[in-house]
Write a structure and sequence with these properties.
By secondary structure, the protein is α+β, with helices and mostly antiparallel strands. It contains 27 helices and 24 strands.
Length: 730
């Protein structure tokens, strides 16, 4: 589609696909269509590739589509000098080799006719039916004359919406971009860079999410050569001068074949060389490359059970690298990918990565959604219920993208948000309390889960439970978490209401939250008296475009929510915070509820600053707390705060330690000996032999805090104890 037609006299360099002779195809195209009883010679390669995957396919419709495409494009030439028909032929061949069905191939032959010739969509519909017409329309660009600078983002928006109804639209677009990238050498360097950048930011992530690895890896290498030419040449040199130290992949492949043969497991063992970008990443990660780092072993078997049998034999006969094992068969990736990943060490310590999958899994791993054929075809001749087409290729990420794009009416906002969304290349699944499930990008928070489940209804969210525990809205979710969102207009547990009032909620905060975004005050939750609605800080916690767009829209429609209630002057007076045992502070705000911020847990005699937040409450932070700088940057006026006479205080401490037996008992004994009461404690799972403890403690006198921290540091295995103080969410 982006390949421009030029005059017949144009001459320039060409980088073509070596598996077919484009000039021969061009000569065949110029000869016109063949007789009625046989296919035109120019699509012989396409027909052969198509028959390999679909032996019973009716090829007459391909011949008919070729005749229309050849006649329509006759007289048009690409900048490389070939007849233009060679482009749709090459795109169709790419898809045929991946196993695309006849309807997709027919549409790919015609994909530029409506855009670049006098053929209309009505003509395509009359000749080839509604499905082919829909696919051709989906990949047809919008005119710059009508859309100006917005033509490219709006074209992608149109294409993504069409992909939501028929995923084959994006299959054709990816193949189209691949052939254009293969022949991009004829373009000006600045145009090459622009096309390569869009390919990198948008089309490669889409190819990954649709599972079309065969296209994704080649696109990555072509983009790599254009955007990072020096690194590309360095990587090519490294591949040409492969390290020969240690056993080669060929030697280990022989050992694996012998092992599986002796175990009476029928398997095909092949070596899969890494592509350029993969070698580049491995070189940056590992430094010096060994012979076994330039590829992987791929083991192909007949049944799922055979995959696990192969895994057992390899782990029995070789030394497994357990940290490298991943089971994507029991838990497939969001892009349909299934395989077992492992790594084994040879006799000299050389590590070899091994992929184990069935032949069908391999087909899907390479071709993704293309390998599904026609996902909309009736099963056993039965039409889908209610006339709706059940789409097995509509994953959660695509549904989310289609939802938020409707709210992004501005082309620049859509284009920027689309690139940011596609840059999040991992997905997690979280479970709802009612048994449902949400698919979210990695790094998503409770804010994202709220908007994914409730849409605009999440404006009234006041808190959440993660795995049964009350958690802040900024809590980052991990795969497998169970989430219950608490809304102001629904039944809300008393503890959740209290949580909405009090920022110092470390007793119930999930340890993964890091103390950010407590539901009350400046962190964006609602007090019981405040009108439901998000605060600007929710934008700091939102990771999904749908949540960010919804929050920004609500804030724009409710500017009064950004205003802080005016405070009448009054003589300073001591106001005790609502929680039992919290130290007194003196503020200049009448009738104000005072709470000590959970993000930094100030205690006497810390230098402190207060801020008035929604509902008229005052939240007190230590002066060095990052939240103070953030609130000041937002234009919030500080409130004068001083300490009262009571010495009792509550504080949150983090203890970092190395794992060892009885460490928790020794720490709690040190705390008790120092006279502190443990309000809550949490011990995170060990990471790299390190353990993090979080304690919320009640001290009879703040003056004893330094001694308590020294006593905890003296416990064997503890290497650091510090007060809670968290950076704002980015």
């Amino acid at each position: 589609m982006s390949a421009e037609a030029t005059s017949p006299g144009a001459r320039s360099r060409r980088r073509g696909r070596t598996s077919i002779d484009l000039r021969r195809l061009g000569r065949a195209a110029l000869l016109g269509p063949a007789s009625r009883d046989r296919l035109p010679d120019a699509i012989g390669h396409v027909a052969d590739a198509h028959r390999a995957h679909h032996p019973d396919a009716d090829l007459l419709v391909l011949g008919k589509a070729y005749v229309l495409a050849e006649m329509s494009h006759r007289g048009q030439f690409r900048k490389s000098g070939e007849p233009y028909i060679t482009h749709p032929l090459a795109v169709t061949l790419i898809l045929a080799e991946l196993g695309a069905e006849t309807t997709t191939l027919t549409a790919s032959l015609l994909h530029d006719t409506v855009e670049d010739t006098d053929v209309t969509l009505d003509q395509v519909r009359a000749e080839f039916g509604d499905e082919v017409c829909y696919l051709v329309d989906g990949v047809t660009k919008l005119e710059k004359v009508d859309y100006g600078a917005a033509a490219e983002p709006e074209t992608f928006r149109k294409m993504l919406v069409a992909t939501g109804n028929d995923v084959r639209v994006m299959s054709i677009k990816l193949a189209d971009r691949l052939h254009n990238m293969r022949t991009l050498g004829v373009m000006r360097p600045e145009k090459q860079a622009r096309i390569a950048k869009v390919t990198h930011d948008v089309l490669i992530p889409l190819a990954e999410r649709l599972g079309v690895q065969a296209l994704k890896t080649e696109l990555e290498d072509l983009v790599f050569a254009i955007l990072q030419p020096d690194e590309y040449e360095r990587t090519r040199t490294v591949i040409a001068d492969k390290a020969t130290t240690g056993p080669s992949l060929d030697t280990i492949a022989v050992d694996v074949r012998r092992t599986l043969r002796e175990a009476d497991i029928t398997a095909e063992v092949v070596i899969r060389p890494r592509h350029f970008v993969s070698v580049h990443r491995a070189r940056l990660k590992r430094g010096e490359m060994r012979g076994t780092d330039f590829g992987r072993l791929l083991v192909l078997v007949g049944e799922d059970a055979d995959c696990y049998a192969v895994l057992g034999e390899l782990h029995t006969c070789f030394t497994p690298v357990i940290s490298e094992f991943k089971d994507f068969i029991a838990a497939p990736k969001y892009n349909l990918y299934q395989s077992l990943h492992t790594a084994v060490a040879g006799p000299d310590g050389a590590v070899v990565e091994v992929l184990i999958r069935t032949h069908q899994m391999h087909k899907v791993a390479e071709a993704g959604v293309v390998a599904l054929g026609n996902p909309y075809a009736p099963v056993d001749g039965a039409e889908p219920a209610d006339g709706e087409r059940a789409d097995p290729t509509r994953p959660g990420w695509l549904s989310r993208l289609l939802e938020w794009q409707e709210a992004a009416t501005d082309p620049d906002t859509f284009w920027t948000t689309l690139r940011a969304d596609l840059a999040q290349d991992r997905e997690i699944s979280v479970f709802l309390a009612d048994g449902g499930m949400l698919g979210l990008p990695a790094g998503a928070t409770c804010v994202d889960a709220a908007y994914a489940q409730h849409g605009d209804g999440a404006h009234g969210c006041i808190g959440a439970r993660v795995n049964g525990r009350l958690a802040t809205l900024s809590t980052v979710l991990v795969d497998g978490d169970t989430v219950q969102l608490l809304l102001a207009h629904g039944p809300v547990p008393e503890a959740a209401i209290d949580r909405g009032r009090d920022d110092d909620s470390s007793t119930s905060r999930d340890s993964r939250d890091g103390g950010q975004g407590a539901q009350g005050g400046e962190h964006g939750g609602q007090t019981q008296d405040a009108a439901p609605g998000p605060s600007p800080e929710w934008l700091d916690h939102a990771r999904t475009p749908a949540a960010r767009i919804a929050i920004a829209g609500w804030l724009a429609a409710n500017p009064e929510s950004l205003k802080v209630p005016a405070a009448a002057p009054r003589a300073p007076g001591a106001v005790t915070a609502g929680r039992r045992g919290v130290a007194n502070v003196v503020v200049d705000v009448p009738e104000a509820t005072v709470r000590l911020a959970g993000c930094c847990t100030p205690v006497p005699p810390d230098a402190v600053t207060g801020f008035t937040v929604r509902g008229g409450a005052v939240t007190v932070h230590r002066d060095e707390c990052p939240a103070v700088a953030r609130m000041t940057a937002l234009g919030r006026s500080p409130v004068t705060v001083s300490w009262g006479d009571e010495a009792e205080c509550r504080v949150t401490l983090y203890a970092e330690s190395f794992g060892r037996p009885r460490l928790l008992a020794d720490l709690t004994e040190a705390i008790a000996t120092a006279g502190a009461a443990i309000v809550s404690a949490n011990v995170e799972p060990p990471s790299e032999q390190r353990v993090r403890h979080t304690y919320t403690l009640q001290l009879p006198d703040a003056a004893g805090l330094p001694g308590l921290m020294r006593a905890m540091r003296d416990v064997p295995g503890v290497f650091d104890v510090r007060r809670a103080q968290h950076e704002p969410a980015s």
